[in-house]
Write the structure tokens for this entry.
Amino acid sequence: MHRFQYAGNALHCETVDLAAVARLYGTPTYVYSAGTVEDNYRRLAGSLDGLDVQVCYALKANSNLALLRLLANLGAAFDFVSGGELRRVQAAGAKVNRSVFAGVGKTEADIRLALEAGIFAFHVESEPELARINHVAGQLGRKAPVAIRVNPDVDARTHAKITTGKSENKFGIPLAFAAAAYAAAAKFPHLEVKGLQMHIGSQLTAVGPFFEAVEKLIPLAQQLQRDHGITYFSLGGGIGVVYQDALASGSSSWWEALPPDQRPITPEAYGAALTPLLRPLGLKLLLEPGRFMVANAGVLLARVEYLKRGQGRNFLILDAAMNDLVRPAMYDAYHEIVPLQRDTSRRALKVDVVGPICESSDCFAKERMLQELGEGEYVAFLSAGAYSFAMASRYNVRPLPAEVLVRGSNFELVTARESFEQMIAGERIPAWLKQGNQA
Ligand SMILES: *Cc1c(COP(=O)(O)O)cnc(C)c1O
């Protein structure tokens, strides 16, 4: 469920007319719905009924400071994958004592930063990483809390670039080696074994793979409770969202109208499937949602620059490009694209929706049926709150886009569009080059 809908023929976020946002702050601009994030957080945090749940938002999905503070105020902790992400949580004014540090390539500097900040635990991905964390903790005279990411070798049945729980992926330690890795961890003097972690992939649309993975890890969890006194089980993230029918999925009646076996995953279905498996363990549970928390809470607004009529093809050329939203180019991802001003009297036109970048991959949608649109009109990309701004770049010397947060009838700029001066601020021309000719 989300809070983007037409009121009359104007697309609104909560009760804000998105065309007003586009006119005031320009485009491309990301707009986020605080109410949708709050709903998502509450539904997921309450999904494992009666169990001790700590939600650690995986901020690689979207690390906007205002969203981090919103989630912290709701009670969320965080899952970070770099020292930079840890510092963003602190910059948002949130504590990190209930937060965890994941990722296969933690540097010594990042480990030191996390230990000094007093995080909840490191989620360790290899034996050499155990040794490195032990070494840094020893230098600081501390004990580092750790959990090992165990790879259950299940097929998450999602896109190949975002599946992580198969044995051929770079993530985690294989289940067959897990007991030995824990025994090794327990021998390090500066490590404290605290939990068990899994994360099998992203954008999972069914509960089955989660159930399968948890079921496979339960005997290990019980053994680790006995042998090492672990106190928590982290189930990772990965709950998928609706991209294909994004506008309609804002209402609960859309879900209810689908046959039960075709309903996309919901927190309620996730919780109902996993609670009976997890309750007998008596462990604290960590959830690390990224996409689920923010994807349907964001849209990207763009302006139509040209409608170019080609030979057998029409191109709708926008001022947004793959540098602003790379998911279609990178993952063949689908985003629903809708006009900010709907006009049912106009005919629909089949268009390729593209950006201005000099690459054929700068294409958001091929042969999409859209209401005929012209220069100066606006469109919104739906479900663009996750892995969208977070993956933006400056390719073609295009500044990072602006971000706006909506709450009820209010909206506020939370990230100013980058200026040209900011883009080149870190660059220098060496003195020896300045003596050369300037053609
Ligand atoms: C990426 C990641 C997440 C979040 O994944 P989503 O699919 O966005 O929910 C959670 N935990 C770990 C370890 C991750 O790498």
